[in-house]
Design brief:
Layout (H helix, E strand, L loop, with lengths): L1 H15 L4 E6 L10 E4 L16 H17 L3 E2 L6 E16 L17 E16 L4 E11 L8 H21 L1
Parallel strand pairs: 2-3, 2-4
Antiparallel strand pairs: 1-6, 4-5, 5-6
Helix pairs in contact: 2-3
Length: 178
């Protein structure tokens, strides 16, 4: 029973962590008032064949649309040439595990059988968004978004992507206001 409670605790901990975590960093020396336009990077990473349910052309279009909307909400204009900023993003996935070791804990009976070890495996998605000053060729803002992937949320992908991008750009907005 103790083993079941520990495994359940690990699962609940990971479920609680399944909200998207957003971290961001800004170049405080960048002149964000001077930036008016942006363009997308020409470089696009290939789709990850190991996670086609998450990394596919439909979701890539959703990411770009959400970032476009957030950039335009911040007052930036999308242009084809002579942009002030370049936007790019990177998607990666990690397969992780949490191991619960139950070690021998009876000093009087060394031969007491070891309790079974449980392993909870999960996949995590990581999205990194960069804003690059094209004149200086330097990243001036970045956001890293991480989430434990949940296939049961697949039908909510569009709204979840918009929410997390908005959350990242809320941080951007507060950082440039400082």
């Amino acid at each position: 029973m103790k083993h079941v409670i520990k495994v359940l605790g690990i699962v609940m901990l990971l479920a609680a962590c399944s909200t998207t975590k957003v971290l961001s960093d800004i170049d405080k020396g960048a002149d964000f008032d001077g930036y008016k336009t942006y363009a997308w990077s020409d470089v696009e990473e290939p789709l990850n064949d190991d996670y086609p349910q998450y990394d596919n052309s439909l979701n890539r279009k959703r990411w770009k649309n959400a970032i476009d909307a957030a950039m335009q909400n911040e007052g930036y204009t999308l242009v084809e040439e002579n942009a002030d900023l370049q936007v790019d993003y990177h998607i990666q996935f990690e397969h992780n595990a949490v191991v619960d070791h139950e070690y021998h804990n009876n000093p009087r009976d060394y031969y007491e059988s070891m309790k079974p070890t449980s392993v909870y495996q999960y996949d995590e998605g990581i999205m990194t968004i960069h804003l690059i000053d094209l004149e200086r060729n330097q990243v001036v803002w970045q956001a890293v978004l991480t989430k434990v992937l949940d296939i049961s949320q697949l039908d909510k992908a569009d709204s979840n992507i918009r929410k997390v991008v908005n959350k990242a750009f809320e941080k951007f907005h507060s950082q440039i206001a400082e």
